[in-house]
Amino acid sequence: MSVDGAEGTEHAAADAERRWAAVSIVLILALLGVITFTGIHWASMPPSGIEPVDPTTLHVSGEFVEQNLGAQIRADGSVIVRLIGQQYSFTPQCVVVPADTKVTFRGTSADVVHGFLVTGTNANAMLVPGYVTTFTTQFSHLGDHLMPCHEFCGTGHAAMWAHVRVVSRTDFDRIMSEKSGGHCD
Ligand code: CUA
Question: Do 101 and 138 contact (CB within 8 A), yes or no?
């Protein structure tokens, strides 16, 4: 190979290296651009429907004080259930709800992230400290449904569960008239 030929190959290699370096720099700049854009975009338009709550004062004041927990009948006849998750239990541990009635759950956590679901139904949500979780559902099958925590929350996670007791509307109204909160027994 002539000296010229060797130099030509070196030039070609150097050019190729520069082109690939340029490609990687462009990729890095593009990724930084995406990060910057989404950061500014999210910060300027936070998601709607977020309800913050102070997890350190849940038991002292506000919506989640003890006498508010459990079931309550609303003016339109639907039912609202408020609950708190904490390591390693739910408050209340068992709540009575009526069948074939709109039931709105409102819950939050006093410490770490917990999950809860009502077995055999589509009720399934997370309880995040600092925020209120809310959803509305309806139960059709009478009886006790297990309500386990389904988010690993520490050493006692496996023992963290409660019950939702679905009763007829008539029984529910009787239970509520005898004792507020709809707690089992
Ligand atoms: Cu609470 Cu797992």
Answer: yes
